Amino acid sequence: MQLTLRSSLAAGVAALGAGVIAAGATSTPAPVAVPQTASPDVALGALADLLPPPSVGSQALPAIGDAIAFGAGVAVAPAVAVRGALPPLPLVPPNVQLSLLTGTPSLGAGNNGNFNIGVVNDGNFNIGSNNTGNFNIGTDNEGSFNIGFNNVDEAGPLQGSDLDNEAVANIGIGNNGDFNVGLNNTGSRNFGNNNIGALNFGSGNEGALNGGINNSGAGNVGVGNQGVANVGFFNQGSGNIGAFNTGNNKIGVANIGIRNPLGPAASSAVGNQAAAKQTTATAGAKKSTDD
Q1: Is 256 within 8 Å of 246 (Cβ atoms)?
Q2: What is the mean pLDDT of residues 3-26?
Q3: Cα separation, 145 vs 24, whole angstroms
Q4: Which region, left, alpha or beta, applies to residue 268 given φ > 0 means left and ψ of -120 to 50 means alpha?
């Protein structure tokens, strides 16, 4: 009898437990999925896509210059025709230009085009000497709207093939490309000297969106950084802040410090997408029209 009672109690407890488990399984609702926001990498990386490629404006601006030059040429054509029917001025050496007194409306000598002031300019509205194109001020510029000396857009070992064979809106000396300000920059929209690439600020930077001296890569700020989105001195990798760090996403010196929680987001925002866009446009759009 005792065994029977004990067995009955055990069976009852087991049945009650099974009932509770079954009831819990059927009555508890499934957990609601929490909406996931976009990761910082995705959100900030999308902003980098808003950056214009370096070639923007390199064709539109010369086209505007060509249209102005063409309209001016049409407007002055009747006066040039009348002057051409008259005998040349006495005592004026050959190739000397005194505007409509001698022929085309240019002042200087050996200019080819209209409204040039200087010597041996080829184009329109140039001021200086040996400029080729329109609206250049200075010497030996090749293209349009350049100010300075020897601004060009040509192929070479550092920059590959050129943007469009026509330097546009450079200010300075020896710039090769478009919209550069400074000295000996190669590429587009660089500010400073000896930069190679696009949207670099400083000196000796190579890549895109670098600020400082001798940085290589994209989105670096400081001196001698190599990689993406580094801030400081001589870091190598991406997302580092400090000096002499190697690797990624560190804050400190020589890899001694803490992890940079914003490193991946910074790399994505100013590096991965921006660098790809800028360097691809710089290299791809720099295609010679002579090919």
Answers
A1: no
A2: 44
A3: 78
A4: alpha
d(C-alpha 70, C-alpha 76), whole Å: 10
Q: Both tokens of residue 154? A: 């040509």
Residue 125: inside a domain: yes
Span 200-222, mean pLDDT?
Answer: 93
Count of the separate structural domains present in the chain: 1
Q: Report the alpha-carbon distance of residue 158 to residue 161 in Å, rounded.
A: 9
| Residue 93: domain span | 84-139
Q: Which two tokens stand for residue 182?
A: 């400074």
> Which of 45-59, 85-99, 180-194, 202-216 has the weakest average pLDDT?
45-59
* pLDDT at 226 exceeding the cut of 90: yes
Both tokens assigned to 44? 């900030």
- Inside any domain, residue 108: yes
* pLDDT above 70: percentage of residues in the chain: 70
Q: Determine, yes or no, domain membership for 89.
A: yes
Is it the case that residue 77 has pLDDT exceeding 90? Answer: yes
Q: Are 265 and 255 in contact (CB under 8 A)?
A: no
pTM score: 0.74
- Residues with Cβ within 8 Å of 271's Cβ and at least 6 positions away in sequence, in order, are 209, 217, 218, 219, 228, 229, 238
Provide the pLDDT confidence category of residue 35 given band limits of 50, 70 and 90: very low
